[in-house]
Hints:
Elements: E1 5-9, E2 19-23, E3 28-32, H1 41-47, E4 48-52, H2 58-61, H3 64-71, E5 77-82, H4 86-95, E6 108-114, E7 118-125, E8 132-139, E9 149-153, E10 157-165, E11 169-177, E12 180-183, H5 185-190, H6 198-207, E13 215-221, E14 226-232, H7 233-240, E15 241-244, E16 248-252, H8 259-269, E17 274-278, H9 286-291, H10 297-306, E18 312-315, H11 325-337
Parallel strand pairs: 3-4, 4-5, 5-6, 16-17, 17-18
Antiparallel strand pairs: 1-2, 2-3, 6-7, 7-8, 9-10, 10-11, 11-16, 12-15, 13-14
Helix pairs in contact: 10-11
Amino acid sequence: MNPSFSSYLVNDVFGDPGVYVEIRWSKRALLFDLGHNDSLGPTRLLRANDIFVSHTHMDHFIGFDAVLRVALGRGKTLRLFGPPGLIDNVQGKLRGYTWNLVDGYPLTIEVQEFHRQEIRQAFFHAADAFHLSERPARPLASDPRTHRFTILEDPMFTVSAVALNHRIPSFSYSLEEQFHINVNKQKLHEAGLPVGAWLKEVKQHIWQGQPDNFRFTVTLYDEHRREEREFVLGEVKERFLTISRGQKIAYVVDARYDDENEAKIVALAQGADLFYCEAPYLDVDAEKARDRYHLTARQAGLMARKARVRDLVVFHFSPRYTGQGEALEREAMEAFQGE
C-alpha cells in the first residue's frame, strides 16, 4: 500500500520542533508548528497552506516570518489554526512591518483560534495592509471523554486537537485519513487503462461520498491516444480499487507529564501509525522536566506503548544533552517496546 501522507521532522532532533506532511498525488502539504523552517525552502513552504500551531513560544512560532515572506504576492489564502491568543500574535507579527506598497497583493491570512467553548476567526488581507477583520465567534464542540475537538475537516482527512498543560494551553494534533484508496495497477493494465490524473478524480468522487451509481466522464491519456470515457463509480471501485483503513499521525509537543495530560495524549494518539512526541529530557531529570512542563524520553515511550502506536519518533531534545541523542532515543524505545 502506498501511503497518502509522507511526513518528516522539519529540523533535526535538537532543532526547533515541527513536522511537515506531504499529501501525495497533490501539490499540497500540512505544517505542524512554525519553528525555524528555512530548511524546507520556498517550494515546500508554499505548498503548506494549512498550518497548525501548538503555541507561540519562540521556537514554535519564529518561522511565521519565513512563511509570510514566500507567500507575499501570491494569490492564495494561508490558514493558521491554534490556541487562544493566536490572532493577537499574528497581528503583532504583521504590525512589525510597514505595508504601504502591498495594496495590489492578493494574499489573505486566515487565523482560527480555539477556546473552550468557541472558535474565533480573523482575516488579514494584504490589499488592506493586513488590518484585522474578525468574524462572529462560533460554538466549539469537544468530546467530553477525550477532550478532543475537530480543527479541520477535509473530504480526505480530519485534523483534531487537544489542549495540554504547558502553563499555557499547548495544542497537540492528530491527522487521520478517512480511509485509504489503493489502486490495482495490474488490473488497470489488463483492462487497457492507463495510470494517470483521472484516478485522482475517481478518489475525489469517493472522498466526497458520491454513490456507486454515480456516472462521470474523464479524459484518458497514454502515449498512443487521448480518449473521453464514461465510468460508473461502483464498477471502478469493484474492479480496480481496494478501500482500507486510513493513516493516522499524531504530533505532541510541550506538555508536563501528569495524569490529565497523559490521558489526553494517549486518547489522541491511540492507534496512530506514526507518533511524533517531544522528549527533551532523560528520565533521570524527570523533576527538571516537570518543573519546565516538558516530557522525558521514557514518558514519551510509555505513552506511545499505552496508545498502541505503530512507530514512535522522539524529538525536541534539550541542548543540555548535546551529543547524547542516542541515549534519549534508546530510553524512549525501551519504554515503548516494554524492555
